Amino acid sequence: GAVVSQHPSRVICKSGTSVKIECRSLDFQATTMFWYRQFPKQSLMLMATSNEGSKATYEQGVEKDKFLINHASLTLSTLTVTSAHPEDSSFYICSARAGGGRQYNEQFFGPGTRLTVL
Amino acid sequence: AQKVTQAQTEISVVEKEDVTLDCVYETRDTTYYLFWYKQPPSGELVFLIRRNSFDEQNEISGRYSWNFQKSTSSFNFTITASQVVDSAVYFCAQFTSGTYKYIFGTGTRLKVLA
Fold first, then answer.
1. Inter-chain contacts counted by CB atoms under 8 A, chains A and B
2. φ and ψ at A39, to 5 degrees?
3. Strands B3-5 and A67-73: what pairing?
4. Which of A10, A59, B73, B89 could form a disulfide with B39 if both were Cys (CB 3.0 to 4.6 A apart)?
5. What is the spatial distance between Cα A77 and Cα A35, in angstroms, rounded to a whole number?
6. A104 falls in which pLDDT band (50, 70, 90)?
7. Under a CB-based contact definition with an 8 Å cutoff, are residues A67 and A55 in contact?
8. CA distances (Å), A28 to each of A3, A25, A40, B31, B36, in order?
């Protein structure tokens, strides 16, 4: 089956530093990847949609300069949290979609990255 | 507007009881997909089922069953003879061809007590 990995699974950093989270599709090419954020005991909220080779589309209220997304290849997307603050502490989940077009294609979720900013 | 409502925030049952998790969705699209995911304490989402809007057949998979009713815009999930290992947060989600996005409900935390 399709597997999506995320690295790191857990990261603790100091306030003001930047953190990069990687999302990889291991056995398929992902034309589109999605980034979600989940605060404790809350639902998953879509942050942005990234298509390979183009700029990410951010959801309303998500700061694009703070959450930098790069989807440079068909198997890798990265989310960089710049100048992280304690309120950025959250569980970040990516998902990857194979194929193209506007037909539904299966999305596969990564295991998530827990970010703690001290 | 696209919306998924899970009115039950937390449910506690005793092992071997049956439990139904409710999900009500809203969309103007005629083509859409509905999902249920399980999220154990580890955080990783576990895919349970996908249903498209043209397939109203109910489905049973072991102790799990799903009731999809377009007339009431509901996609409810029943666990029969619940077990402690079923304890988790369960999310209902919707994907529409119009928005091309997954929208998740707020989740229902299920606690199965031994």
1. 45
2. -80, 160
3. unpaired
4. B89
5. 9
6. low
7. no
8. 8, 6, 31, 25, 23
Looking at residue A100, its amino acid is G
Among A12-16, A64-68, B42-46, B100-104, the minimum mean pLDDT is found in B100-104
Q: What is the maximal distance between C-alpha atoms in chain A?
A: 42
Best to test chain A binding among B102, B108, B109 (most A CBs inside 10 Å): B102
Whether A17 contacts A80, CB under 8 Å: no
Give the whole-angstrom CA distance, residue B2 versus residue B25.
8
pLDDT in tens, chain B (114 residues): 789 999 999 999 999 999 999 999 999 988 899 999 999 998 999 999 999 999 888 889 999 999 999 999 999 999 999 999 999 999 999 998 777 788 999 999 999 999
Interatomic CA distance for residues B104 and B46, integer angstroms: 14
Instruction: Give chain B positions within 8 Å (CB) of A56.
Output: none
CA dihedral B81, B86, B90, B96 (to 10 degrees): -70
Is the four-CA dihedral B72, B76, B80, B83 of positive or negative sign?
negative
